Amino acid sequence: MTGADLPLWAAWLVVALVLAGAGFSLTGALGLVRLKTFYERVHAPTLGATLGTALILCGSMLLLSAIEGRLVLRDALIGLFLTVTTPVTLLVLARAAAHRDRHEGHSGAPPKP
């Protein structure tokens, strides 16, 4: 594949979507490094990864659809799995950390529901 058969407008749109998605993912990663507590850190990568993944997958679907000349939606399954599993992972990690902090008697532990 040389990319010669890809229209210029599609190439620019793919680049814009992928760069925007990478920017959101980078923002989430920087939030992971910059925030102080676990409970603050757990939100930034989750939000950045979800939106970043969605934009990158949209760019991928557009690229494949433009190259193949038909609508290609197989990358949407990746988005579906990541959209479902990322918030569930966040919830499980936060609950496990809250349980541990309450059990160990940390002063910053969230109250019991």
From TrEMBL:
One of its GO terms (molecular function) is sodium:proton antiporter activity. The keyword Transmembrane helix applies. The chain crosses the membrane at residues 6-32, 44-64, 76-94. Keywords: Membrane, Transmembrane, Transmembrane helix. InterPro entries: PhaG_MnhG_YufB. This is Potassium:proton antiporter. It comes from Methylobacterium terricola. The lineage of its organism: Bacteria, Pseudomonadati, Pseudomonadota, Alphaproteobacteria, Hyphomicrobiales.
